[in-house]
Automatic annotation (TrEMBL):
UniProt keyword list: Sigma factor, Transcription, Transcription regulation
Source species: Actinomadura nitritigenes
Record-annotated RNA polymerase sigma-70 region domain positions: 20-80
Region Disordered: start-end pairs: 76-99
Keyword Transcription: yes
Listed name of the protein: Sigma-70 family RNA polymerase sigma factor
Amino acid sequence: MNDVDVQEAITRTHHEEWGRVVASLTKRFGDLDIAEEAAAEAFAAAVERWPADGVPPNPGGWLTTTANRKAIDRIRRENKRDDKHKEARMVSGDDPPEPVGAIDDDRLRLIFTCCHPALAVQARVALTLRMVAGLTVPEIARAFLVRETALEQRITRAKAKIKAARIPYRVPAAEDLPARLSGVLAVLYLVFNEGYLATGPGTDPLRHDLTAEAIRLTRLIRALLPDDGEVAGLLALMLLTEARRTARVSADGELVPLAEQDRGAWNAALIAEGHRLVRERLAAAAAGAAPGRYQILAAINAVHTSARDIRDTDWSQILALYDQLVRLDPSPIIALNRAITLAELDGPDVALAAVDRLGDKLADYHAYHATRADLLRRLGRSRQSRAAYDKAIELAGNTAETAHLTRRRAQLG
């Protein structure tokens, strides 16, 4: 195996094993700082030794063993008097067993710990990407447009709060699992959305690294909780959205609306997998399992991606799904998306009336003004359309979206 193969093996192992190693260490030592530092040292040892010694037959096992030794060495180095008993217990590994919760899996315990509701949402996102996904602090800071020092402090404070509040390292009990799981899925959806439509000047408009990481973590949860409908729904939603990624931005960096995308450039394998998940959830719904928010959003995307041409889209079915979704989530953003669908069925004037009713709640949301601008353009009200485009451009944070809105405004003459 040459040096390039070894480096590829290290990169692949880091991607596949980081979360497992950190989770195993956290279970044994009960400390996220120790787990993170020891895991990082183990991977550094792999970078140093594998090119000379070769990649071990069980890379994950080698890393876990090495990381455990690194953690024990750190504890012994600190050698604090008050921690003598704790040190002996950690080194021997004979801690009393913790309650395992509904599912006994170290990685799932780590995800629920990082996404605990006692932490601020931003801290949950940062901690999950660092501890579970293995992204570096610079990578996370760059993705969410914050300074590295600020992000490092955010992660440090989150770990300190987990320790001080004695947040348990375990999967919630079965009766608490649905409520806690929704928070985990919300974190993963935030990560995916930032990659799907990245914000900030100088930022790539699409961040494939973030969408791919969100999909990978959702796949992990799906493997651990295969019967949960909302996990399947979120995975299907991500896959069907990611399938359109290469068609969403033109060669000159402009966002391409769904109606104008080259559907032949969509990823057929991701669409097929997403459709299969949606069909599974539809069968469950037919058997009496009420679909949740992510499942309905996935079904809407399945209808869109089933049409070979925008003219073949079943808008009536999409509207029916939005009607169902509004009953679950009566948010103004869902109502806005429903109004966009309404324009295809009842015309832009009916849709505009529905959109205008949302003005008080969405005045600072760029998509509200972009939608109004498009509807006003279709109605021939160019002056009002231009003003709406101006506001949408002012509020939009995505470079490709800004380019698209600017061109549309220029077409008004």
